[in-house]
Amino acid sequence: MIKMSENECSKPLKIIIGASSQAYPDWIQTQEEELNLLDRADWEESFKSKKIRTILAEHVWEHLSYEEGVEAAKICYDFLEPEGYIRCAVPDAFFRNEEYQNIVQIGGPGPKEHPAASHKIVHNYKTITSMFEEAGFKIKLLEYCDESGEFHFNDWNPEDGFIYRSFQFDHRNKNDELGFVSLIVDAVKEMSE
């Protein structure tokens, strides 16, 4: 369960899932042991009837199988306010870079301590879209590679959810050369009719 101050509870809730060292003003950091994506009880205890405006998940969903990803998305959907969204970034299966693909592969490249050792899926824009749509979301593709490896970028505001491992911000992308990209989507809970 996460603990929020009265000040945090009085503002629109913006949550970082699996924050690690990510810390941004007005965003509440969470770690898996406080807020497990697959444990509805954690969410009920943490938020009760309070709805969340934004959920930020940078390189989290690849640690879930496709089925677990759908279940986690359904839980998030239930706790988001109408027009709230998940900004999700994951490794991109269609990025044409052999070194990158070796690093992000299922099971990771090396010892179990490596962050990628627990990867269960490497999404492409079709699988992540399908996964979030199964949970009821409408998808906006922000950054992704298509089947031919061509990179696509749709402008997005980092103030709405900062993703370091992105075209704009990752230090490995220099001189119009892509060194590291993420598949980035906004999964939006549409206003109910």
TrEMBL record:
<dbReference type="GO" id="GO:0008168">
    <property type="term" value="F:methyltransferase activity"/>
</dbReference>
<dbReference type="InterPro" id="IPR029063">
    <property type="entry name" value="SAM-dependent_MTases_sf"/>
</dbReference>
<keyword id="KW-0489">Methyltransferase</keyword>
<keyword id="KW-0808">Transferase</keyword>
<protein>
    <submittedName>
        <fullName>SAM-dependent methyltransferase</fullName>
    </submittedName>
</protein>
<dbReference type="GO" id="GO:0032259">
    <property type="term" value="P:methylation"/>
</dbReference>
